[in-house]
Each structure stands twice: as C-alpha cells, then as structure tokens.
TrEMBL record:
One of its GO terms (biological process) is iron-sulfur cluster assembly. Belongs to the complex I LYR family. Residues 9-64 form the Complex 1 LYR protein domain. This is Complex 1 LYR protein domain-containing protein. GO terms for cellular component: L-cysteine desulfurase complex; mitochondrion.
Amino acid sequence: MATPPTKQSILHLYHSMLRTSQSFSSYNFRQYFVRRTKSTFREIQSETDPAKLAAFYEEKAKELAVLKRSAIVNQLYGGWKVVVEKQQAEHERADS
C-alpha cells in the first residue's frame, strides 16, 4: 500500500504549482492554470483515503513537471500583453 503524503507535502506541491502557473507570460494561460490548480486542490481538500491521496500526489507531481516545461516554452514564445494586464506607464516628456 502506498504511503500517504503529508499535509505539508501537499501544500508544498500546491504552492509550487501556483508559483509555476504565475510564471506563464501569456495572461490567458496564467489565469487558466491558476484557476485549475485552485479548483483541483479544493476538490481533494476533504479527502482522507491514503490511497487516493497518494495517487493524487503522484499525478500532480508529474503534472507540475509538465507545467514547468510549458511555462518555459510560453516564456520563450510569449506574445503581446492583453488589455486586461497591467501596462507599464509610458513616461511623457515635459515640454518646458
């Protein structure tokens, strides 16, 4: 029987997935993976079965590796910022 992961290790995995989701340069991908991560971990929050927790942890650890690779590729080929993202203010020249 698989040993269940500790609550601390599940929280660490959750925070790692959120951090990796935030590293996408594309707004749409970034928001999608943040929402998906939060909803996935919210579903497993009340689970007590050790076998299900172990399977969930293994699956999400593999998913984290894929997410990291995808974020790197997205950063390499990221496009323009969309309107809803915070834009950097352009400095205007003062006419003196």
